[in-house]
Design goal:
Layout (H helix, E strand, L loop, with lengths): L3 E3 L5 H4 E3 L9 E2 L2 H11 L2 E5 L5 E4 L6 E3 L2 H10 L2 E6 L2 E6 L3
Antiparallel strand pairs: 1-2, 3-7, 4-5, 4-6, 7-8
């Protein structure tokens, strides 16, 4: 089953497009420096879900997510075998590609 996200009524396939790699296979790995630039433009910061090792980008308004520094964010990504990927200004944390 392919997950879908709704789009405007002008979208194909009943206004839905596939989510995940099927949706945008052009996700490219980016550096932390590039991620900082994109995040700054979107008002986002690196964060860690409290009580877990999960990291994400946040606007800092969710009390369940603790804002952390970029250095800690990068360390946690590497320790978990994750990397940041980007396409068209959208960023996603995914398993590091071999």
């Amino acid at each position: 089953m392919i997950k879908c996200h709704p789009v405007g009524s002008s979208g194909g396939a009943g206004g839905r497009i596939p989510a995940g790699p099927e949706r945008n296979p052009m996700m490219e790995p980016i550096s932390i420096g590039k991620a900082k630039e994109i995040a700054a433009n979107k008002g986002m910061k690196p964060g860690r879900v409290r009580g877990t090792e999960k990291v994400q980008l946040t606007k800092g308004m969710n009390p369940k997510v603790e804002v952390i520094g970029w250095e800690e964010f990068e360390t946690r990504l590497k320790a978990r075998g994750l990397a940041l990927y980007e396409s068209g200004g959208w960023m996603k944390i995914m398993r590091r590609r071999p």
